[in-house]
C-alpha cells in the first residue's frame, strides 16, 4: 500500500473526483488483498492495481446512478416507469392479473 497507494488514489480521483475516491481506494485494496495470492509472480502489480482501482471507481459511479434521488414533491400525474411495458396493468386487457395476458400471448404464439 505504501508503494502504490498514491497512484491508486490518483486513479480513483480521476474517475470519481474527490468525493468518493477514498472509498474506492479502500475497496481497491480490499479486493487486491483477496486476489493477490492468485496473481502470477511475473505480473505487473502496478498495472494490475490500476485496473482494479479503475473498476472499483466505476462500480462506485454505477452504484450512485442506481440510488434513488430524493425530490421535494411528487408530481400528481406520474405513472410508474415502464408501465407501458406492462399491458396487464392497463384497462385494455380487461384484467389486472398478469397471467391472463401471458396466457393470451402464448395462445397467439406462432410456435405452438
Walkthrough of the structure:
The chain is mainly α and about 110 residues long. The protein has a domain of about 60 residues. The protein is built from 4 helices and no strands.
Task: Give the structure's gist in a few sentences.
The chain is mainly α and 112 residues long. It is built from four helices and no strands.
As a percent range, the share of strand residues is under 5%
Rg estimate, integer Å: 24 Å
Helical run tally: 4
List segments where confidence is low: pLDDT < 50 over at least 5 consecutive residues: 100-112
**Could you say which overall geometry the principal axes of the C-alpha atoms support?**
elongated
Sheet/helix structural class: mainly alpha
Through-space gap between termini: 61 Å
Largest sheet features: none
- Secondary-structure element series: HHHH
Question: Features of this protein?
Answer:
0% strand; disordered C terminus; mainly alpha; 112 residues
Compile the SSE list and pairings.
Blueprint lengths: L4 H12 L4 H15 L9 H22 L31 H10 L5
Helix pairs in contact: 1-2, 1-3, 2-3
Amino acid at each position: 500500500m505504501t508503494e502504490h497507494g498514491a497512484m491508486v488514489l490518483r486513479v480513483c480521483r480521476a474517475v470519481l473526483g474527490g468525493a468518493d475516491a477514498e472509498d474506492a481506494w479502500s475497496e481497491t485494496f480490499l479486493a487486491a488483498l483477496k486476489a493477490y495470492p492468485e496473481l502470477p509472480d511475473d505480473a505487473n502489480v502496478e498495472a494490475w492495481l490500476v485496473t482494479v482501482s479503475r473498476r472499483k471507481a466505476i462500480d462506485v459511479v454505477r452504484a450512485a446512478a442506481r440510488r434513488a434521488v430524493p425530490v421535494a414533491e411528487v408530481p400528481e400525474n406520474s405513472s410508474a416507469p415502464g408501465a407501458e411495458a406492462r399491458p396487464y396493468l392497463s384497462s385494455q386487457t380487461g384484467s389486472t392479473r398478469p397471467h391472463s395476458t401471458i396466457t393470451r400471448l402464448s395462445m397467439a404464439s406462432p410456435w405452438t
